[in-house]
């Protein structure tokens, strides 16, 4: 029989991160309920209308929110490792750069920079290799989408050399 502060008898505090996630799920469910309540006013010939599935999704989110609260209060979640901030900053910075540079520089260069930032987040910090490689791969994707599939992606100076 164990006594004292063994790991099996120690009580953990409620998981605050899980409670935040539960609050986010509940808020999202409330937003979906509110938005789909306007659709419920549209008359249909049957009981199922355009608001039915959003109501089901919102109900499911509320159920998941309640389940998450219960698991957080019982401390059922495993202890998480410390979150590394640097990789997240690399990826978010790459996404921001892509959104800002997509119009002026085009798809290949902007998405190539996102590729290099994501590679740096995963530990490949040789940007002089990953930037040109990412741009070349993204140019290939642009050529396939634009040339073969006839889909429109933002074109920049590099893409204008080919089309």
Summarize the structure in words.
The chain folds into two domains: 14-72; 83-151, no CATH class. The chain has helices at 16-39, 52-73, 85-105, 107-121, 127-148, 157-160. The protein contains six helices and no strands. The chain is mainly alpha-helical. 66% of the residues lie in helices and 0% in strands. The chain crosses the membrane at residues 17-34, 54-73, 85-101, 107-123, 130-153. Pfam families: TctB (PF07331). InterPro entries: DUF1468. It comes from Rhizobium rhizogenes (strain K84 / ATCC BAA-868) (Agrobacterium radiobacter). This is DUF1468 domain-containing protein.
Architecture blueprint of SSEs:
Blueprint: H1 16-39, H2 52-73, H3 85-105, H4 107-121, H5 127-148, H6 157-160
């Amino acid at each position: 029989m164990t006594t004292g502060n063994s790991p099996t008898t120690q009580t953990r505090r409620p998981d605050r991160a899980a409670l935040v996630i539960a609050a986010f799920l509940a808020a999202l469910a409330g937003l979906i309920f509110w938005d789909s309540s306007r659709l419920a006013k549209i008359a249909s010939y049957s009981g199922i209308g355009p608001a039915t599935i959003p109501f089901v999704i919102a109900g499911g989110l509320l159920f998941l929110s309640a389940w998450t609260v219960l698991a957080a209060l019982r401390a059922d979640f495993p202890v998480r490792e410390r979150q590394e901030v640097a990789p997240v900053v690399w990826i978010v910075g790459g996404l921001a750069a892509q959104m800002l540079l997509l119009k002026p520089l085009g798809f290949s260069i902007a998405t190539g920079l996102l590729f290099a930032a994501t590679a740096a987040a995963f530990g490949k910090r040789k940007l002089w290799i990953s930037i040109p490689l990412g741009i070349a791969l993204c140019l290939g994707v642009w050529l396939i989408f634009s040339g073969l599939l006839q889909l429109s992606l933002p074109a920049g100076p590099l893409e204008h050399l080919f089309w």
